[in-house]
């Protein structure tokens, strides 16, 4: 039998056997036997702000995200725009960590531990222990920018800097490209990717567009370049004088990507020349630090010296 009450609740009951008496007994229903049927109580009303629904996506002020689920049995749930706060279903703007100005004025409820930064990066709010705290002095570092990444606005440090976007410190660069916009040549500390030793000093040159790393200087005879294999492998001299950077360091540097090579020199007659190549690399120790070079730039002024650079280096002073 299917039964519907005045309040709209539906029930059913099934009997294993039944018998109806004769007319003398007014056709009374007797001997119904064992039965099965609806056992769940019928929901006749829902608490304040809740509605009866078979599907629910019921978040809370502490965790406003939720996953929708549906069942055959109706239940009381918070409707859209409402969240559970303890045992109560409240409008989401009544949650203690509600930010009215967020999401173009539609507002947003921060989950416990969640952080919100406004699109202009001038305000940072967080929800901790159910309490909203906001910092109106939040600003990006001069070495950072306000950006939106994966839908979230925040201060981020520029390339070559590390930090939280509010405090950005110069990172240890992998080469001199990070200093290409500097006004003058400078000695910098770098650490190429894959270099397992300590960071080391190099001279970063800003001429010809900047970003050049000086790995050899030989202005005079004050430092001998007649060295053995290990000395050329390790390097010698200092970055602010005559020096050779070291083959191991050159191999690590040029393994990071494609690099150009520029050679500046003065001929015996005192004329300045340069040669530029579009591709330059030094192999590791397993290749005996093999030099690979190609792409001679036609704007170079090396002339005939281009053909003897690596054959008679000591004769070019």
Automatic annotation (TrEMBL):
Record PANTHER family: FIBRINOGEN/TENASCIN/ANGIOPOEITIN
InterPro entries noted in UniProt: EGF, Fibrinogen-like_C, Fibrinogen_a/b/g_C_1, Fibrinogen_a/b/g_C_dom, Fibrinogen_C-term_domain, TILa_dom
Keyword Metal-binding: no
Protein name: Fibrinogen C-terminal domain-containing protein
Domain Fibrinogen C-terminal: 167-317
Record key words, sorted: EGF-like domain
One GO location term (cellular component): extracellular space
Domain EGF-like stretches: 130-169
Alphabetical list of Gene3D superfamilies matching this protein: Gamma Fibrinogen, chain A, domain 1, Laminin
């Amino acid at each position: 039998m299917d039964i519907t009450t005045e309040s709209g609740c539906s029930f059913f009951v099934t009997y294993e056997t039944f018998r109806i008496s004769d007319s003398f007994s007014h056709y009374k229903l007797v001997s119904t036997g064992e039965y099965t049927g609806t056992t769940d109580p019928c929901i006749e009303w829902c608490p304040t702000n809740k509605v009866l629904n078979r599907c629910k996506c019921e978040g809370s002020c502490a965790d406003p995200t939720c996953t929708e689920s549906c069942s055959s049995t109706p239940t009381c749930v918070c409707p859209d725009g409402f969240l559970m706060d303890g045992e109560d279903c409240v409008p989401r703007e009544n949650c203690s960590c509600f930010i009215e100005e967020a999401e173009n004025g539609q507002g947003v409820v921060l989950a416990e531990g969640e952080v919100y930064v406004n699109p202009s990066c001038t305000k940072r709010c967080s929800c901790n222990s159910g309490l909203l705290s906001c910092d109106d002095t939040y600003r990006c570092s001069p070495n950072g920018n306000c950006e939106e990444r994966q839908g979230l606005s925040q201060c981020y440090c520029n390339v070559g800097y590390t930090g939280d976007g509010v405090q950005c410190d110069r990172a240890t660069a992998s080469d001199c490209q990070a200093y290409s916009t500097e006004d003058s040549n400078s000695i910098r500390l770098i650490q190429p990717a894959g270099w397992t030793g300590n960071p080391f000093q190099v001279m970063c040159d800003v001429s010809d567009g900047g970003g050049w790393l000086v790995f050899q200087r030989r202005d005079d005879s004050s430092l001998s370049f007649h060295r053995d294999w290990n000395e050329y492998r390790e390097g010698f001299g200092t970055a602010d004088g005559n020096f050779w950077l070291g083959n191991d360091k050159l191999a690590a540097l040029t393994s990071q990507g494609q690099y150009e090579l520029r050679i500046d020199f003065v001929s015996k007659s005192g004329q300045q020349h340069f040669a530029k190549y579009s591709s330059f690399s030094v192999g590791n120790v397993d290749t005996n630090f093999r030099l690979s070079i190609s792409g001679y730039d036609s704007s170079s002024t090396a002339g005939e010296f281009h053909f003897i650079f690596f054959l008679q280096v000591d004769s070019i002073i």
